[in-house]
Amino acid sequence: xxxxxxxxxxxxxxxxxxxxxxxxxxxxPGFSIATVAxxxxxxxxxxxxxxxxxxxxxxxxxxxxxxxxxxxxGIVLFREPASIERLFCIGLIMAGVVGLRFVSSx
Length: 106
Description:
Layout: H1 2-23, H2 29-49, H3 55-78, H4 84-103
């Protein structure tokens, strides 16, 4: 179950990172509230996963999911550059996340 909590925490991290963009420096109340709620929920799910998982593995996967998902959504939603080099680097993050999951004994 810890891996499910960690996945949820990572997805929430993507949500609040994108929410930061939409909140425009916390100047839009609705997006600001949703962003802070996403942050809190993300930390709750991460802390729940940390009851079982090693902190280094869990934190690396959490940030990897967040970084990868936010970068992809930045391309899709905000027309950020989608160069081959950038996509390759996002793929490296994905490989690291998947690799850590498979080599973890928990």
